[in-house]
Structure prediction request, 491 residues.
Amino acid sequence: MACYDLHIYIPKEVRMQNYATRSETVQQIIKSLNLTRTLYVSSIIIGEPWTGKRTLVRHLFPDLPTADGHDQEAVEALLGQTDALIIEHYEKIPNTQRLDFEDKYVIAIADYAGNTKLLDETFAFIYHMPPLRDRPEDIQLYADLYRQEATRTLMLDTDISLEGDILDIRQNLRSLRASIYQEVLLQKGNRDALERGLYHYFLDRLPEEADYHYHLGLFEKPLLEAGLHVYGSQLRLAEALGINRNTLRKKIHAWL
Amino acid sequence: MPGSNATDLTFFLDTDHSPFVLFDRHGVIVYLNDAAEILLAYVDKRELFDLALSYAPNDFGARTTPMELHYRQLNFYAVTVAYRDEEQIGIRLYYRPRTRSSQPVDPSRLKTTNINTILEAAIAHFSMKNPTRFDLLTDADLPEFKLDQNGFSKLLRRTLHLFRASADLHISLTMAVGESIMIDHTRCPIVRLTIQANGRYSDDDRTIKALADAMRIITLLDEHRILFDIPFIQE
Prediction:
């Protein structure tokens, strides 16, 4: 007989090949899924798109066959062929009541819950993958991973900084990754690349936005921000740029 | 003594399914039938004597009172209390018929299972949303037995959810020594799972009872505790 207080052990970070998390909730999902892998039970993971549900399941169960809920017949066929399977886009299955999960090991993945009562009756375990906004510990983790991936993919020699409000998590991992690649390209772009970028920017906006003064801000605003950061005072910056101090003050007033 | 004047009714009383106990004026048991012997494993004789006095008719005779009585898995819907002198008083309790699943246990659904694994998975699942502290008393050497894994996992998830407001949860999982239940004409030992806290929700009690009944699990739903007597099926 064992008698003990159960303290759920949460490591600071879980890293598997191509999957990492610092979120306690996600680590509990991993633990629970791992415990049930020898059982004939049905589980579902529900969460917003691009929260890492599918990646997690694929890495925990790389050998399980997968069916897509957009195709009910394919799901039913796979259920008839195998005892263990993954069903993606479960919420898209037109008639879930036709599916028989008895004596199966099923992991379903859904972007939203739909009929919660039916889910409650169907699944033994119902997991909710939190969105990235509720996993601040994972935002930084993935930002670092994507930054390393981007510098490696784009064959850059030096790292970049991710300061300021540049991480976009509105579409969870998808927009986070896009925002980091965009930032890497911008920070490491040379003069030619920046000019080409601006050229396409203007092509998209002219003739509707043919305002010279407005577009001047594309050059002056970042120059003044970086200049003040480097020189620390308007006086020294004016001297360095070779412009009058009053002119600099007017530009700062206009753009910053 | 029953039937002492003419026919000895002891045999008939002993074969009666309903517990019957005869007390003397001091609460000492004069006679009890076989069903009452089982009942006394779950309730103190003093409590039964008090019950008899509380529901005795105002004058000599008998009175039947409908009431819900629960002693662990034994459920009663009425008691009759009778006395014809000041020396002896009898009480008979009426079993509530147990609703039996119309279908026998489907052996294909039963898989050899380490119940501790399901319990651990259910606790991990529950801990995702609840910062509850668990005090576990489990028999790590409990042999594997046959269980509807999906059904039991569902039952456990819903049961733990009823304790979502509890800061501390006490769970014990042991073999119930010396107890058994009949499953499809076969006597099965019992694995007893008890989940206890300071209080609990009861909004899902009916579903939990139905899920458990379908698996032939006997359920006790108390104010602070839920108990499952799970048939230990190995063949």
Summary: The longest helix of chain B spans residues 115-127. The helical segments of chain B are 10-15, 34-39, 45-54, 115-127, 149-161, 205-214. DSSP finds six helices and twelve strands in chain B. Chain B touches chain A at residues 108-109, 111, 113, 117-118, 120-125, 127-128, 133-140, 149-150, 153-154, 157-158, 174 (CB under 8 Å).
